[in-house]
Structures are given as structure tokens and as C-alpha cells.
Predict the 3D structure of the following.
Amino acid sequence: MSDTNDTQQGQRKGALENAMEQLSRTVEMFRGSRIDIEHWSPTEHGQLVNFGGREGYEEVDRYWLNAPFSYASINYDAEENQYLYHVVEPTLDSFEAELLDALYQDVRNPLLYGPETDADDEEGAERVLMEELRDRLEEYGVDVDMAGFYRLFYYLWRRFRGYGKIDPLMHDPNIEDISCDGYGLPLYAYHEDYQDVETNVSFGEEELDSFVIQLAQQSGRHISVGNPVVETTLEDGSRAELALGQEVTPRGSAFTIRKYSEEPFTPIDLLRFGTYNLDQMAYLWMAIEHNKNIIFAGGTAAGKTTSLNAISMFIPPRSKLITIEDTRELALYHDNWLSSVTRERLDEAANITMYDLLRSSLRHRPEYIIVGEVRGEEAITLFQAMNTGHTTLSTMHADSVQTAINRLENEPINVPRPMVQSLDVLVVQTLARFGGERVRRASSVAEIEGIDQRTGELDYAGAYDWNATDDTFSEGNRNLMDEIREERGWSQRDLLSELRRRRRFLKYLWDEEVTQYQAFTTMVNRYYANPDRVMDRIDAPEIDTGAEAEASADD
């Protein structure tokens, strides 16, 4: 009986405290308030986020995502042998959560449509949001400390200028992909160090439907029950595949985001990761410079587009270059570059396809044409361009050289076999496991040799192959180098000397960690202009060529 009385007294006391707190806040609203915005200082104001760890897990890593608002805590469960990616953000009390709902509507219009707000001016938008938040809080008569002010600010900013619940994940440079498989399910991320990891982020049904619609609208696309699947490019350049409702994805709305990297990988990065070795990279450099046609093939997430972008940095500096993509992914440091992207509209007549862009590109008289991916009727035009003297680079989905050739020759691509032999090099990349880790490797670099007159089949020879047992590359026939030697009028000794020199050049940039793409391209352009001078300076230890290149790129 006494326990019951104690419980009832506790409940009455709790209700009384809540009522007093609500009354206090009501009085504050009538009285008004004044808030002086201060720059956030952890030493003065304390920490905005705290995390005590997850029971049963060992925290193995922790790093900021969006300081001082969010960080990642990587936790490991030894028993299950799995990692958990825990996003840590500010915690709102019940009053702040209710207040946030009211603030969403009141600050939305000034932030999104205010005359002082520029879509590309982050500092200006931040200032406008802070001022609007302060004015609304003063108008409500709510007196908050700086920690409360910045907690509210963070969630407003995350919603209107960020990516909502996934904003911390989008801030993580170690994450390549983010995927949501349905209502109430944890999101998964592909992490550079921990591979596929479960996160503590999830969406409810209405919340997820709304989020998917919002992603589509922000990128200028329409998604609905009648049109439930959309592929699009987000504002930051990331690729997104969206599905709405349960018609095509029974577990609910879903999305996968392939994050866009503002700092693209260079050939030096591919060397560091072991995707290629120095011999292969010098070989591909020679092929690019001497106008050889190359296709990068591979499965999903094999790194095809990454390699295409990196190898394209070897294109000579003044060559006319045109890129054609469905979604913007390529990033180059090239003066004479025309970038084009397909466009889809609800009105079929207004669609601009890759085929349209490719036909149009030929009128610009390009020397190099880069097509993000070939998978349909545009392939015929691409191979016609090869036959008329345009150097073409592209990607396609295929897991072997023979599979790639079969795909090119059959539905829906249907390139005639005599045209396929215009292709010079076919590089197949794979996402494999080695040493307990996932690695990306150029499993095969093949040269297309032409049609075998005896069998009528397309012949190809392996220039390089990857040995999965010991993670090494073996060298085969490299007839393409002999073609280049004859084109240049070189002796065999001249050819081997040039290949050695380029390997030494790349090794130097690797050692000096020249991985910033403008700096790398600057050094390659200098090599084209005066290779002897560049190599002399590289061989002089007092010259810091890498730092000099970065400074030149910044200028």
C-alpha cells in the first residue's frame, strides 16, 4: 500500500513540476526575451554533443563530421565480428523538440527565399538563419542559453541547407555509398576503412516517403506513385537512385546515394591503392597521349568511372575535350573542356539523351570524347566517332573482357563486330577481397587485335593481368606500344627509355604525395611541354616539385 502511495505522490510531484515549468515558460513568453548571439566556444560554452558508448561494443574510432555539431563513433562487437557506425548529434529536450517544429515554418521562407540568401553563399545563409532564429525566439519570448540556441540552429540548418537525417553521413569523406532499404530499417554505409557498416540512422514511414520526395524535388525531378523510380543527381553532384512507396520496393521507400567527391582521384591515388602499378600507368599514359580508344569495364562499385576520370588527366593540355554523362561525375583540370549532361523531362519531346549529346558533340570537332557509360544506341555513334579519328574513352558494365565484347555486339548495344575492332584497349576492373579487405584492382588490361580471319571472332591479347593469389600484376603482349613506337619513329630503345622515364616521373609524384588533381595535371602538362627539363628538376633533390606544382595550381 505504501509503495502505491509513494508512486502516486511521485506522479503528482512530476506533474506539478511539469506544470510549473510550463507556467514559467508562458510567463517568459509574455515578458519577452533578448538573445545576444555569441560565436560558439567549447571552452566557454561546453560540448554540444556527448556519447557514452554502446553497451556490448568497443569504440575503435571517433572523428568529427560537422564540428561542433556531429561526430562519428565507430563501434566493434567482437562476439558478432561486426562494426556499427553511430552518428552522435545534439540531444534536444522535449520543449526544444516542440519549439523546433514551430520554428520550421517560421524561418523557412526567409531562409529559402530571402533576398539576402544566395544558394551558393553558405556564410550568408548561416547568418540569415541565425538572425531569423534569434528574432523568432525573442518574438516567442523564449530565453535559451547558447547551447540551446546552437542545438536549434543545427537542426534547422540540417533540414533546410543540408540533407536532413543523413547530413552527418554526407559530411563523412570516408563514406562512398549510403543506402536505405525501407521503413524503420537501419541505413548502411560503405566506409573506406570498415566496408559495409550498419548505422544508427533510420526513417519512419511518412518520414522516409517525404524525404525521398524532397530529394527528387531538390534535384529537379518528379517522383510519385505513378512514377516510383527515379535516378538523379543531387545538388552536390552525388548520384541517387530513389524508389517511392511499396509497389516496387515491398519494404517501403528506398534510396541509394553514391557520394560525389569534389576532389577526384588522380593516377597517383590509383597507384597508392594498388589498383594499378607503375608499368600499367605508364602504358595507359602512352595510350591516352597517342589517341588510343579505351573502355573501362567492371561491375558495380568496381571503380570504373574513378579510373576513367583519373586516366583522363593524361590528356594533352590543349586538346579539345568533350564529356557526356547521365549524371555529373567527371572532374578535370582542363582548359579546352566542354562538359554536357543529359536531361529528362516529363514531356518526352524535351528529353535530351546521351545519343543526342554524342551526335551534337561531333559538330564541335573534339579530339577526345569521354562518355560516362555506354549501354544503348549511343554506342553505335561512339564507335563511329572512333572510326572517324576521334579518341574516345568510356565505361560499361561487364566482369570480363569476353563479357564486355559480347555486350557490345549484342542487344541492346548492337555494335557491329567490324566496328568493335576500332577499340584499342579494354580495361576490366574488379572489386575483390585480398588480405581480409576489399580492394579494387585492374584484373585485366587487354588489347583488341582485330577479327580472326579463320574463326571470324574478335581477337584480343592480355597486356596485363592481376594475380589474385599474391596481389601482383603480370605482363603479357603489349603490341600497342610497338604501334606507338612505329608512329613516333622511335627505336625499341627509345620506347623503353620513354616508358622508364614516365615510370620515374609517376614514382616521384607518388613519393611526393602529389594527389591534388590540379597539381597533378599541372605537372603532367609541364612534362608535355618540356620533359627533359622536368626530369632534370625531379632529379635535383633541392627542388620540391610537388609543392611547386600545388602552388602553381592554386595560382
About this structure: The longest helix spans residues 2-31. Residues 26-32, 550-555 have pLDDT under 50 and may be disordered. The two ends are 82 Å apart (CA to CA).
